[in-house]
Hints:
This protein is 33% helix and 28% strand.
Amino acid sequence: MFLRLLLTSFLICYVQSKEDIYDLLSSIGCSSFGNLLQGTGYMYRLGDDHSGPYTVFAPSDAAINNLPPEIVKIFNFGNWELAFDIVSYHITKDIFLLASLQNNGLYDTMLENSQLRFNVYPKGNSKVHTISGANITSPDNTATNGVVHVIDRMLYRFPEVYTTQYVHEHQNLSKISLLIDKGGMHDQLKAQNITMFVPNDEAFDAAPNFNMTNLLINDTAIANFVSSLIVNSVYFTADLVNGQDLFTSQGSRIRINVSSGNITVNDSGISQPDLITKNGVVHVINKLL
Length: 289
């Protein structure tokens, strides 16, 4: 009986909508994303009632208006292939209503070998839903050929690398990379669904009473240090709230403070937030925790 009611409500939801995805975008505040579909050919797919079904994570007009200049240039000056890839990264095949998305679930996009990560977290008396770090601000806008979830920023494809690889590939993270190598921490940094607060090299240089040489000769101390930077769940900045406590895999507590949109982790700022990896997210911080 429950399944019959669930199916009935699902079908009613779709009967109520008479617009295809492309036409729906203009009525839910995503006209600018609709314009991007024109330039990449997706207008014809998403405007066809017999195509799909699709789930689209569509940036709002405000999100498109706030794009960095280098991204605007891609769409305005004819880098068709890259523009096509960016748009494809916002579209999945099949219908995924908000209630069907699983926390830490990975969803294949129309861009080959690329996935989006969904997360849901409590925030006060409500919940925050994110897709690869972007807030879902208006979910379940149904169309004749799928569903649109409005999000608050554009999504970009990130390298398909594990956290350990991400750290090794960036020159400003050379000191934590050395500790990961010396402590044999690679497997821990390939575990699924982790958040890592990664100090940059400047954080090590500025830390008073920190002795890198002494740390390097003690593998146990290295393991404790690196583990104190790892949280065994995925937290994008959109999921962090003032006064929140996160507990690391080493057992220590990290206090989150949010003030006027600025986030600090203990007393460290986040210089590079929401760096997506194959198994979670990295936030580069400017002080040691």
